[in-house]
Amino acid sequence: MHSLFAKPMIELKGVGSKRAELFQKLGVPTVGALLRLYPRTYEDWSQPYTIADAPLDVSCAVRATAESVGAPVFSRSGLMLIHVCAFDEDGSTLDIVFFNNSYIQSLIHTGKIYLFYGKVTMSRGRRQMAAPNFAEDGTCPGMRPIYPQTKGLSTRVVESAVREALRLLPETLRDPIPPQIRNEHSLCKLGFALENIHQPKDREGMEVARRRLAFEELLVLQLGLLSMKGRSRKKSSFRIEDNCLSSFWKLLPFSPTGAQKRAAEEAVRDMQSGLPMNRLIQGDVGSGKTAVAAACCFVVIQNGMQAVLMAPTDILAHQHFASLSSLLEPAGIHVGLLTGSLKAKEKGQVKAAAADGSLQLLVGTHALLTKDVQFRKLALVITDEQHRFGVGQREALAEKSQNPHVLVMSATPIPRTLALMIYGDLDISIIDELPPGRQTIQTYCIDSGKRIRALHFLQKHVHRGRQAYIICPAIDSDSDKASVETYTCRLRQVLPDCRIGSLHGRMKSSEKEKIMQDFSDGCIDILVSTTVVEVGVDVPNAVDMLIENAEQYGLSQLHQLRGRVGRGSYQSYCILITDAQNEEARARMRVMCETSNGFVIAEQDLKLRGPGDFFGQRQHGLPQLQIADLNNDLDVLKDAQQTARSLLEEDPALEAPAHRGLRAEVRQLFRNISET
Description:
- Helix content is 37%, strand content 18%.
- The chain is α/β, with parallel strands linked by helices.
- It is an enzyme of class 5 (isomerase).
């Protein structure tokens, strides 16, 4: 199998240079990679329906006899149509139409039995099927794989290439999963799995293959993440002696919740253990994670060490800097800010202060990762909005010191199943309690016909001294979706007495900072923006969040946007505008209107969209799952995690001969991650 990963696609029979380039676009440079390109779904021809029993509007196979094949006819638009009439042994009839296919008359013969694969629909009381795939009865496969495609590379071409690749598999295939583990979890061998995932004879064989490959995928990922966790368990150079949390809580202008105290105590306990802390603080919007991070910084600094906090955007970094400065500087703690937008002289001053230790807490963006950023005694590394950073970036920041304590925070509630996969290298603290006085945000879903009423609703609140956000998915009018620039112009005409501002990612950092400062200071009544305001922006006077084209966003992102309001003592509202009629979009809108619990929303988001789309874009620095499905593979994930832990306890470096195959797969996976 390893030799096939060294064999380029151009050397595979039937694949020339052009097709090899197309396969490269699919992420398939070698024959081995092709065998790991699993079908995204299957056409199930194994149990064909009678015409009467075929479910409507669902892809399925129907067995029927061709009764007649009509001559070509042409529609007014010039489309060529060929009608085929078919019947089955029950006497039911099926009308079939093919488009622009002049070969149908020579491919389908009257009196012969065929399997037609497609969607059966009803029209004027008759069952119909449009442009189905078909094959003579007895000649078609039980399960036909459907592969990822790119322009110029159809699933049939991929299927043919895979068939050639399978012929190259050696009779004795080295399996990375040792026999003992396969037997313990009733897993088939790798050769059987590859044959039956690509060319299954029936659904049972496909499921056996899929379960084994999903287990292998999750096992390799967990081995890598847990190995990283194990490396962080070396003796810490920064053991915390003085737990001074009680002094920190007195600095707060509010009483901390029980959940905040618990999370901070868990973190400090880790830092007192003699081993590096490696912890995720996860909480819903507005649950107070920043106060927990500030508590950890305070404890570390009071013990004579330094801390650093990395945020994904300039806006969020500036906000953290402002809040942490006002909280900690009265206690004599010097806080600095480092972002790409600072002038060279300012950057130099901040870097010098971090290096000589006079700067005790440094807040910044990716600018913190440059090699010339050094610290005198860095003991605590914090990353905020962790899902926007990758494993490699988190490690790069931690490498600024010798085994520092690591704290990561996420305001995106993550289902337990997804957290187990992504954060397998971390201990998890959950802040499951909101501070007292937080208002429940009333959420409504309307169509575009009610937009003007909604805008006047916002105007009414502006007249009372409040503020509002309007979110658009596009920046300019090149898109058919609501755009910030066009919307801002029209809004100034509709609401001429309101002060309108706009914000989007193409603006310079200084422009964005000024707009956000003006909004925070109350100089802007309504801010029209893209999702750049999704995280961290805190304006207690803002009470309305109106989201255009709401169907464009996942539930978790909608929940994050909604969390920008309701941060003060005023009743707040979220208005979702969509004309989408598909059931998935409507289901998401219903969930948003029915619950404000971020963890419930996250679970629903995972069910509706799957883990691949959970964050709206690929989780940077983590591999996409090729075959495991966290909606259905929770048991497989748990088995893989337990197996990974047992293996690493027995053989931490995976050096035993039986484990070398797994070690090679882990190295390959995390080499790919570091290059992402």
